[in-house]
């Protein structure tokens, strides 16, 4: 099994593998071009990201945007992300339709072993799924393995470290459901 196959399967892998390093550098170069593109040329700017990320319809993202690979990110129709979105996509990140992100949202599928010796050699990840009609407030963090259901609101500054069921308003660190929609 290659290091890339291990990564995509959520198994421990060597992030400094030659192929993975090349893929990350490609993504970083595309993000750099996007972040420096003329802000009034919206279509041209988004075209840069469409080479990297899978968009299933209309999308608008403000710069800056950062990701590790890009090819693990799937975004549904009618997506909006405010400034400074970071997606660490060592595993799949699936984002539904009609989703909005406030500024400084961080989504990370990647994590590291607790054992310090193992942490020096490997990392691993877990998929993240975000349903339809979700609003994620500014400075929220969504951690590995989390599923956020449909019709949810995640409060600003929340740290989402567990699944959030459909039709929920969830806030805090750790993020907890406070009411139903």
Describe it for me?
The chain has 181 residues and is α/β, with parallel strands linked by helices. It has a single domain, classed as Hexapeptide repeat proteins (UDP N-Acetylglucosamine Acyltransferase, domain 1, 3 Solenoid). The chain is built from 4 helices and 19 strands. A 7-stranded mixed sheet has the order 2-5-8-13-16-18-19, with no helix packed on it. A 5-stranded parallel sheet has the order 1-4-7-12-15, with no helix packed on it. The protein has a 5-stranded parallel sheet with strand order 3-6-9-14-17. A hairpin with a 4-residue loop joins strand 18 and strand 19. Helix 2 runs antiparallel to helix 3. The longest helix has 19 residues. The model has no long low-confidence stretch (mean pLDDT 97). Belongs to the transferase hexapeptide repeat family. This is Acetyltransferase. Keywords: Acyltransferase, Repeat, Transferase.
């Amino acid at each position: 099994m290659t290091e890339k196959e291990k990564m995509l399967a959520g198994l421990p892998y060597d992030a400094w593998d030659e192929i993975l390093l090349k893929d990350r550098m490609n993504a970083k170069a595309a993000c750099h071009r996007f972040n420096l593109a003329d802000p009034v040329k919206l279509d041209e700017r988004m075209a840069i990201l469409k080479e990297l990320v899978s968009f299933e319809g209309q999308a608008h993202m403000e710069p800056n945007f950062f990701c590790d690979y890009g090819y693990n990110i799937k975004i549904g129709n009618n997506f909006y992300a405010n400034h400074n979105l970071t997606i660490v996509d060592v595993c799949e990140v699936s984002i539904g339709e009609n989703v909005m992100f406030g500024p400084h949202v961080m989504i990370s599928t990647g994590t590291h072993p607790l054992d310090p010796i193992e942490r020096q050699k490997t990392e691993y990840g877990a998929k993240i799924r975000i349903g339809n009609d979700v609003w994620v407030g500014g400075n929220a963090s969504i951690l590995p393995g989390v599923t956020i259901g449909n019709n949810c609101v995640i409060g600003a500054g929340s740290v989402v470290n567990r699944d959030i069921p459909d039709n929920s308003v969830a806030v805090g660190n750790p993020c907890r459901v406070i009411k139903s929609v």
